[in-house]
Write a structure and sequence with these properties.
The protein is α/β, with parallel strands linked by helices. The chain has one domain: Rossmann fold (3-Layer(aba) Sandwich), CATH 3.40.50. Helix content is 42%, strand content 15%. It is built from 8 helices and 7 strands. The protein has a 7-stranded parallel sheet, with helices on both faces. The radius of gyration is 17 Å and the shape is globular. The protein starts with 8 loop residues before the first strand and ends in a 6-residue tail after the last strand. The model has no long low-confidence stretch (mean pLDDT 92).
Length: 248
C-alpha cells in the first residue's frame, strides 16, 4: 500500500462487479474512503466480505440516471464526510446490435445511463468540488470503441464517444475551479460480461492486441489511481487508452 489516496473521499459508480469493483478495491488499498455505488440492492455487499475493506468501502445504492436519487446520495456523502475528492463515472450499459437490428428501447437505456447519467453525476460532483480549495478529480470511463468505433456497436460506441466529448468540454469549463476531468478508455477487458460473450467472435480482436492479452480490471483500476491521486495534479482533459496497444 502506497497510500496515494490517503484521506480522499471517493465515489465509484457501477461498483458491483468487474472494473468498478476493482477500482473501488484499489482505491481503498491506497487509503481512500470509497462509496461504492450500484443500482441493484446488495450487489456490493455480495463481495464486501474482506476485513481489509470493511472500514473503507461503503455501499451506496441508487440509480445514477434518477436525479432525485443521485442528489440524495451526494447529500449523504456531503453530510457525512463534508467533501468529495474523486468521482469515477464507471456505471454503464452495453447492448451490441447490428445496424438494422438496433432496438429503440436499448438505445434509450444506453443513453440514459452512459450519457445522461454521466452528465448528472458530473454536475453534482462539480458543485461539491468547486467549494473545496483543492478542487477534485472526475474520471469518466469511456471505451476504445468510443474513439475508433466497432462493428455491431454503433449505439454503444456513440454513447462512449459522447463520454469523451463530455470529458474534454467539462475539463475546459471546470479547470479554473481546480477540478480535473479525464477519461480512461479501456480496450477488451476480462470481466463477467466478457466471459459471457461468444469467445470465438473475440479471437480476431484479441489477436490484434500487441501486448498479447486482454486487460484485467486491475489494469484499469491502476490507471484510475493515477488520475485520482496528486501525481496527476496537472493532467486534465485527457483520454488515456488502457488497451495493450490494440490495432483496430
Amino acid at each position: 500500500m502506497a497510500d496515494l489516496l490517503k484521506g480522499k473521499v471517493c465515489l465509484v459508480t457501477g461498483a458491483g462487479r468487474g472494473i468498478g469493483r476493482a477500482i473501488a478495491q484499489q482505491f481503498a488499498k491506497e487509503g481512500a474512503i470509497v462509496y461504492a455505488n450500484e443500482v441493484r440492492q446488495g450487489a456490493v455487499d455480495e463481495w464486501l466480505t474482506d476485513d481489509l475493506f470493511s472500514n473503507s468501502i461503503i455501499p451506496l445504492y441508487f440509480n445514477i440516471s434518477d436525479e432525485s436519487e443521485a442528489k440524495g446520495a451526494f447529500k449523504q456523502i456531503k453530510d457525512k464526510r463534508g467533501r468529495l475528492d474523486v468521482l469515477v463515472n464507471n456505471a454503464g450499459i452495453e447492448y451490441n446490435e447490428l445496424i438494422g437490428m438496433i432496438s429503440p428501447k436499448h438505445m434509450t437505456k444506453m443513453f440514459e445511463v452512459n450519457v445522461y447519467g454521466t452528465i448528472e453525476m458530473l454536475q453534482l460532483a462539480s458543485r461539491v468540488m468547486a467549494r473545496q480549495p483543492e478542487g477534485g478529480s472526475i474520471i469518466n470511463i469511456s471505451s476504445m470503441v468510443g474513439v475508433k468505433g466497432n462493428k455491431g456497436q454503433l449505439v454503444y460506441s456513440a454513447t462512449k464517444g459522447a463520454v469523451i466529448a463530455i470529458t474534454k468540454s467539462a475539463a475546459k469549463e471546470l479547470g479554473s475551479k481546480n477540478i480535473r476531468v479525464n477519461s480512461i478508455a479501456p480496450g477488451l477487458t476480462k470481466t463477467e460480461m466478457m466471459d459471457a460473450a461468444d469467445q470465438e467472435k473475440l479471437k480476431d480482436r484479441i489477436n490484434n492486441i500487441s501486448m498479447g492479452r486482454i486487460a484485467q480490471p486491475l489494469d484499469i483500476a491502476n490507471a484510475c489511481v493515477f488520475l485520482a491521486s496528486d501525481l496527476s495534479s496537472y493532467v486534465s482533459g485527457q483520454v488515456i487508452g488502457v488497451e495493450g496497444c490494440t490495432i483496430m
